[in-house]
Automatic annotation (TrEMBL):
Pathway: Organic acid metabolism; glycolate biosynthesis; glycolate from 2-phosphoglycolate: step 1/1. Its EC number is 3.1.3.18. Belongs to the HAD-like hydrolase superfamily. CbbY/CbbZ/Gph/YieH family. One of its GO terms (biological process) is DNA repair. InterPro entries: HAD-like_hydrolase_sf, HAD-like_sf, HAD-SF_hydro_IA, HAD_2, HAD_sf, PGP-like_dom2. It is an enzyme of class 3 (hydrolase). It comes from the Bacteria. This is phosphoglycolate phosphatase. It catalyses: 2-phosphoglycolate + H2O = glycolate + phosphate. The keyword Magnesium does not apply. It holds the Pfam family HAD_2.
Amino acid sequence: MCYKAVLFDLDGTLLDTLEDLATAANRVLAVRSLPEHPVAAYRYFVGDGVTTLAERILPEALRSPAMIAETVEAFQREYAANWHDRTAPYPGIATMLDHLTTIGMRLCILSNKPDGFTRLCVEHLLAAWRFDPLLGQRPDVPKKPDPAAALEIAASLGLAPAEVLYVGDTAVDMRTAHAAGMNAVGVLWGFREADELLAAGAWRLISEPMELPPLLAHSSLHTPG
C-alpha cells in the first residue's frame, strides 16, 4: 500500500446528517418567527462550522455578532435533542470501512462539526470501526480549510502528509487537503456537486464507497491538483 491512513470528513462523507441539521436549524428559526429553509438549501449552509451555519440561516439584516451567538447556542440545544432522528451512514460505508480495516488501513476523522457532536455521532453510529485520531472543531484550533488539524493528525500517526489520503464532500475538504499536502478524494454522494470539488482541486471523484480502496494503491507522492 502506498497510503498508510485515510482521513475522512464526517457529515456528507460517512454520515448523512442533512435532515437532522436542517430540522434543528429550522426549529431555531421558527421559534423566532424567521423564514425557514428547505432541506436541500442546507447542503450549502453546512460544512464551515456551526458559527458560519448560524450566520447563513439568518436574514442578512439580523447577522449581528450577538444574534449569531444566540443562534449558535439555540442550534446546539436543538441539535442535541434530534441529531440521531434521521442520521445514518451512507449506503456502502460499512462495507468500505470493513474492507479498509481488514487491509490494515488506519482510519481518522476530521470535521468542522463541534468536537462534542462529532464524537457523539461516531460513538453511536460508527462504533464498529476504530477512528484515531477523531477530531471535530475545537475552540483552540483553526477550522478547515486551515490545515492545522489535518497536519496534527498526520503527525500523531507518525506519517508524512503525503501518506494520508483525504476524503471529503466539499470544497473546504479539498482545500484542507491541498493546504496540508495531502491528496484529496471527493465523494459524490454527499452535500456538494462534482464541479465544486473539481474546481477546488479534487485529485479523484468517487460515486460509491467501494471505489475508494483501489485508489490506495496509487502513489502517495502524486502532487495534489
